[in-house]
Amino acid sequence: MRHLLSTKDLSYAQAISILDTAQEMAKVSEGPVKKLPTLRGRTIVNLFFEDSTRTRISFEAAAKRLSADVINFSAKGSSASKGESLKDTAQTLQAMGADAVILRHSASGAAQRLANSHWTSGSVINAGDGTHEHPTQALLDAFTIRKHLRSGVGDLRGLTIAIVGDILHSRVARSNVHLLSKLGAQVILVAPPTLLPLGANTWPVQISYDFDPILPLVDAVMMLRVQQERMNDFFFPTIREYSHYFGLNSDRLKLMKPSAIIMHPGPMNRGLEITAECADSARSVILEQVTNGVSVRMAVLYLLLAGTPNEDEGLRA
Amino acid sequence: MRDYLLDGGTLADGKSAQILISDGFISEIDAVVMSAAANNAQKIDVKGCIVLPGFVDLHTHLREPGREDSETVESGSRAAAKGGYTAVSAMANTFPVADTAGVVEQVYALGQATGLCDVFPIGAVTQGLAGAALAELGAMADSKARVRVFSDDGNCVFDPIVMRRALEYVKKFNGVVAQHAQDPRLTKDAQMNEGLISSQLGFKGWPSVAEESIIARDVLLADHVQSRIHICHVTTSGGVDIIRWAKARGIQVTAEVTPHHLLLTDELASSFDPIYKVNPPLRTQKDVMALREGLADGTIDIVATDHAPHPAEDKECEWQAAAFGMLGLETAFSIVQATMIATEMMSWNDLADRMSTRPAKIAGYSEHGQMLKVGSRAHLAIVNPEKTWRVDRDLMASRSRNTPYHGMEFPGSVVSTFFRGVPTVLDSKLVGSSYGS
């Protein structure tokens, strides 16, 4: 594997390999010395065209725990506006000798565009591209689910996972649909019809416009952030109505299996898609997702950069 | 002026014929031209070729004035000649916009000075393409450019009252409004066809209904005010159905399809390569097939290129930042042959009709699109249906390189083009407007 651009193009074996490697990486993070020498001398660039403190510092922590040198490059705007173009930025980083570029961009496909161009020879890791994909988020979600509900081994067969909210604009949802279903889980998308993409019924998922009947079935519920601006585009009438039908609250919590876990990719709108009570409950694994994010990103960096790249074996995305 | 004898070719109906061109006109056309004038004419061997009336494009972006970095009237005329075109229609979305007699006269004059094909300016419907106030349509019609086709292409004339007035007003000089059918509210920030692919790629979708609802509205408006309406670049099967219905009702609607919408589909967007980013967007295979059927049965009247040159930097970027549009003039014929003739959906007569006769008729280019007969202006496209070629973006006559067909092989080539009886292209190579004079 040279790049990690999407979960759609990830094979089952590649996904399992990343999760298993992340398991090993987690042990490092738990030990007294949270550092491996594996990527010493390698340069990794966090190239963020979009604000995202969480994802950026998670990648930064992961790279540093593998002893890589990390450069943070915040390039606001894109070539559409007055900012520097993706091409020029990438070529500049290439000229500085970047071994890998971690790219966050508001344009769908930006990471794939960069990987397929001749603008950089390094590995490209998609840290979120528009409303397309956010593969490391899905991998850390799968890792967290596996850890809690499958004792950290194998895949997710037999589990039912609901993804709730703004599926239409969510790269996290897209990456999770591909990955979780690939790992054998049954995915249920819960959203008002306005926030489901056209043709979502052809995806390997079930769809429900009602949250309540789904709750007793699920082993994990993944709440997506809902943006207040969506109201202005008529996706739902009011924030209150959205919250009423699709928010996770204590009443809904009671409908869930005792073993079921609550997830959220963050940042949360407390009181909107999730109440504080749910976010802070014993069933919530939201902070653990953050911890696991570092392990999963360490695994991805390790698999992409450690050793000699070989097109014929290992991961390829 | 030199005379030419085209020897060994066939006409669109399959008949073999020699064609004698004298003083810019077809002076004889027969199995064997007998007149003495033939002896002095330069003989041009067109064995294996089909001699067609020169192609007429109703939808061409030549970018001059304002964006001469991507195309000029001169470079666009060269591309047109290479594609077998003897007349093109320069769209109004230039800088400044072609919304006054001054700008359309300038573009027309540049075309005449280049002399490789006729360049007929299209006038803007509204001032500055803003959709709010009518441009001086009468002044453009009365100008030296004699504008008869008006379009805000790139923008839809969305306000129904503006559209109604435009449709009514152009009746004064038998003009036609060419509508870019795109509801702007349904396509805000849209990047590609809304469907399974856009959902998966996370692109804001461009629903078919955004095009179809405007087509439906405008054919009804045209019916109501008894005027002509031309629909630019139809892309959806639903749009074809609406136009078919309107024609059956006797509404004076004509429509065009681009070569790329006859061939390419939205699946290409999965590459995230914005070479495939175009307005209106590439649709599905079902739409492609409906467009082909519509063109074959005459529901869609013509092929128009929507030739849209862009400099490299406007495509060498992420999809969302890239410009809409692709080159078309130099590949149009080959794509129509590949999609319509090779599939036996159309005859060569049909191709001549859709690429020359009907577009000339819609726009009132009376000298173009004529049947090949004695006395016709010698505007000719000579094609070899057996001569395959591979598209190389670096060999384009256009100033831009944004062709989605780079590396693709097509059956059939334009071998020669005659404009006013003078070859502009021979052996698939540009020979310039002064050849033989």
Distance from N terminus to C terminus of chain B (CA atoms, Å) equals 5 Å
Mean pLDDT of chain B: 96
Termini Cα gap of chain A: 6 Å
Q: Give the low-confidence spans of chain A.
A: 309-317
Structural category of chain B? alpha/beta
Largest sheet of chain A: 5 strands, parallel
Proportion in β-strands of chain B:
15-25%
- Low-pLDDT residue spans of chain B: none
Number of strands of chain B: 21
Question: Secondary-structure element sequence of chain A?
Answer: HEHEHEHEHEHEEEHHEHH
The helix fraction of chain B, in percent, is 25-40%
Spatial extent as radius of gyration of chain A: 19 Å
Total beta strand runs of chain A: 9
Keywords:
heterodimer; A: 317 residues; alpha/beta; 4-stranded parallel β-sheet; 10 helices; 9 strands; disordered C terminus; B: 437 residues; 12 helices; 28% helix; globular
Describe the structure.
The complex is a heterodimer of chains A (317) and B (437). In chain A, 36% of the residues lie in helices and 14% in strands. Residues 309-317 of chain A have low confidence and may be disordered. Chain A starts with 11 loop residues before the first helix and ends in a 12-residue tail after the last helix. In chain A, helix 2 (53-65) links the parallel strand 1 (43-48) and strand 2. With 317 residues, chain A is of the alpha/beta class. Chain B has 437 residues and is of the alpha/beta class. Chain B is 28% helix and 19% strand. Chain B contains 12 helices and 21 strands. In chain B, strands 1, 2, 3, 4, 5, 16, 19, 20 and 21 form a 9-stranded mixed beta sheet that branches. In chain B, helix 5 (160-169) packs across helix 7. In chain B, 60% of the residues are buried. The interface between A and B is medium-sized, with 29 and 22 residues.
